[in-house]
Design goal:
Number of helices: 0
Largest sheet: 7 strands, mixed
Order of helices and strands: EEEEEEEEEEE
Shape: globular
Structural class: mainly beta
Number of strands: 11
Radius of gyration: 13 Å
Strand content: over 45%
Distance between the termini: 39 Å
Helix content: under 10%
């Protein structure tokens, strides 16, 4: 059973860098053909895709967030990390990590972590 767990600060000040980590258990992030995603949901809004990192380390990003959201991974810890640079209150959201399986569906999700940007 694959499990994903997000971790990071719940409160960040404007202009700071937010760093969130997704720790994966029950499966390797380097397993062929799986992609690992970051998705967020601002209060009262729908899900917003942020970006992803593949089993081989390739990354893709939302065009609207690309310059602010580098995604990296630590294969020795089976983790992948999202950094969100220069945060604003509009970045307040529940942040999720998820796995995309071979057919293109998200088959496993983390429980989500609330991030609030406020001074």
């Amino acid at each position: 059973q694959v499990q994903l767990q997000e971790s990071g600060p719940g409160l960040v000040k404007p202009s700071q860098t937010l760093s969130l980590t997704c720790t994966v258990s029950g499966g390797s992030i380097t397993t062929n053909s799986y992609y690992w995603h970051w998705i967020r949901q601002p209060p009262g809004k729908g899900l917003e895709w942020i970006g992803s990192i593949s089993y081989s380390g390739g990354t893709q990003y939302s065009p609207s967030l690309k310059s602010r959201t580098p995604i990296s991974r630590d294969t020795s810890k089976n983790q992948f990390t999202l950094q969100l640079l220069s945060v604003t209150p509009e970045d307040t959201a529940v942040y999720y990590c998820a796995r995309e399986e071979h057919g293109g569906l998200y088959d496993y999700w983390g429980q989500g972590t609330q991030v609030t940007v406020s001074s």
